[in-house]
Amino acid sequence: MTFPISFLNKETSKSDTAVIGVMEGNNLLRSAKDFDKMHNGVIAKYLKSQAAFKGKNGQTLVMSVGMSDLKRVILLGLGEKNKLDVVGFEELGGNLYKALQGAGAQNVDIIADDIEQVGKKVSMADSAVHLASGMKLKSYTFNKYKSEKKEADKPTEIEQINIIVTANSAAKKGYAIQEAITEGVFLARDLVNEPPNTLHPESYAEKIRDELKPLGVEVEILDEKKMAKLGFGALLAVGQGSIRESRAVIMRWNGGAKLKKGEQNPIALVGKGVTFDTGGISLKPGAEMDLMKMDMGGSAAVVGTMKAIAGRKAKANVIGIVGLVENMPSDRAYRPGDIITSHSGKTIEVLNTDAEGRLVLADAITYIQETYNPKVVIDLATLTGAIMVALGFEYCGAFVNNDTLWKQLSEASDATGEKMWRMPLDVAYRKEVESEIADLRNLGNLGRYGGACSAAAFLEHFVNEGTEWAHIDIAGTAWWKSDKATTPKGGTGFSVRALNAYIAQNFEK
Ligand code: BES
Ligand code: MN
Ligand code: ZN
Q1: Which residue of the set 71, 358, 430, 441 is catalytic?
Q2: Which of 100, 207, 259, 458 has its CA 20 to 30 A from that of 483?
Q3: pTM of the predicted model over 0.90
Q4: Is residue 508 domain-resident?
Q5: 437 lies in the same domain as 339
Q6: Confidence of residue 155 (pLDDT cuts 50, 70, 90)
Q7: Residue 136 falls inside a structural domain
Q8: Number of domains comprising the chain
Q9: What does the mean pLDDT of the chain come to?
Q10: Res 68 pLDDT > 90
Q11: Do residues 362 and 356 lie in contact, with contact meaning Cβ atoms separated by under 8 Å?
């Protein structure tokens, strides 16, 4: 579903639905009062007759009217004064979007002047921008595989949303940036939702090129031949059981100042892109294995972030790399017991072929460091079930080797509502993944206890001394089984907004 959102300084006369804001205690916003006055006070009167509606944040009440084109007025509960941050406005927008859909609204005017009153240090323009952004984020659908419905069976769709604010030109500007970010989120969701028979490493690599090249991102695809030459023994081992060839894709956005000679690249993002994880020879149980199409969620976050920053022409230099493989059992699959040699030269004893993500990431992390010498490396991966045991579906886990980087990430997390919890790195975990017969083993020696921590420690063995590094385990947040305020169920696009904010806040000043 796509519909335009416009910011206007006065109402249209064509809308079938008007939305007006009501604060807790049923105080109408000033703009809502004006609207009510224009309509002879019917709204205030109606409100008095509806005892259940209290103006609490997110509450909605649909009031049918018959005034020329206007069919309904939706009263939107805003809650108390001075409460909402930008994330709060987005959640409000998401809830409003649901109500609009439920009411069958098509052309909508949202009377939003004054709405910043319920905000906590958010300007009028930003209040409107994030309300709009929340609606857009919530409107995402993935229905390309649904057969066409007959015209008569189609639900009514929203055609146009107008947000009426006096700060309309500032809001319009702000929303353009937000919309580019949302496009990145939508791409990440699309990639995660795409089924594994159509999204495999080769088609995925091409999709990345097709999406990002037109935006000015340089895209380089490494095929198996090139990776074999480079000695990507870990990544290639994971992919060798599949009929689909593995790929690595490097993305470069050069929006910042040209690097001086010897200057480090500022930042590299690394993503796990297992397009389907059967577990390999260490086969997963059958129940819900279909969900393992989302095992490329980390790579989707990287690709989505590249799209977001290119789309808004970020003044920063950002490098991305994703390792794309399919983890399949077959007669040529890698086995438990195999010892493989990673691109770093470190040998790895494979004890479980289902602990494949860390192998893919190891080679990608080594390659990006040796090729681009980044100051900061952030990897994203649906790496362990253990992080879900620890944090559930609300927070992702962040393993960060530098306190400043953690502070920056946690600020970006707070600013976007993509919740992040710091997890421990420790030499004891690093020891857990040392092998008796090779340099490393791909499984901690405590079994599933602390599994997210030993996985992070495994990756730490591939991070150069002095590199600021964060590993973000998004196994619990890349896919949600139920709706949230601004996120429909399915692929979430989680991390795109936080990474974008991290880049905006730290590299574009
Ligand atoms: N892709 C999985 C982790 C995962 C599980 C992501 C559930 C999303 C939802 C990963 O490759 C995996 O299989 N991890 C194993 C590691 C174990 C074998 C050490 C796990 O978590 O069980
Ligand atoms: Mn696995
Ligand atoms: Zn996996």
Answers
A1: 358
A2: 207
A3: yes
A4: no
A5: yes
A6: confident
A7: yes
A8: 2
A9: 97
A10: no
A11: no
Task: Measure 427 CA to ligand 2 centroid, in angstroms.
Answer: 24
Q: How far is the CA of 272 from the centre of ligand 1 (A)?
A: 12
Q: Which residues contact 102 (CB under 8 A, 6 or more apart)?
A: 62
Per the domain annotation, does 92 fall within a domain? yes
Query: Can you tell me the distance from the alpha carbon of 467 to that of 373, in angstroms, rounded to the nearest whole number?
Result: 9
Residue bearing tokens 């579906």: 393
Cα(260) to ligand 3 centroid in Å equals 39
> Tokens 């609207």 label which residue?
35
Give the β-pairing of 17-23 and 374-381: unpaired
**Is residue 137 domain-shared with residue 233, that is, in the same domain?**
no
Which atom from ligand 1 is nearest to the alpha carbon of 444?
19
259 and 141, same structural domain? no
Does 72 participate in catalysis according to the annotation? no
Residue 284 annotated among the catalytic residues of the structure: yes
Q: What is the pLDDT of residues 468-478, one digit of tens each?
A: 999 999 999 99
Ligand 2 centroid–CA 339 distance in Å is: 18
Residue range(s) defining the domain that contains residue 159 = 5-166
- pLDDT confidence of residue 473: 99
Using CB distances shorter than 6 Å, the residues near ligand 1 are: 277, 295, 352, 354-357, 382, 384-386, 443, 451, 475
Identify the three-state secondary structure at position 469: strand
Considering the domain architecture, whether residues 140 and 55 belong to the same structural domain is answered as yes
Instruction: Tell me whether residue 187 is in a domain.
Output: no
Region of poorest pLDDT, from 24-33, 228-237, 343-352: 24-33
Q: Are 413 and 446 in contact (CB under 8 A)?
A: no
Residues 151 and 225 in one domain: no
Tell me the per-residue pLDDT of 217-253, one tens digit each, with 9 for 90 and over: 999 999 999 999 999 999 999 999 999 999 999 999 9
Q: What is the pLDDT of residues 486-500, one digit of tens each?
A: 999 999 999 999 999
Residue with token string 């090139």: 226
* pLDDT higher than threshold 90 for residue 126: yes
- Atom number of ligand 1 nearest to Cα 277: 1
Q: Which atom of ligand 1 is nearest to the CA of 357?
A: 11
State the residue for tokens 């940036």: 177
Considering the domain architecture, whether residues 162 and 217 belong to the same structural domain is answered as no
In this structure, which amino acid lies at residue 79?
G
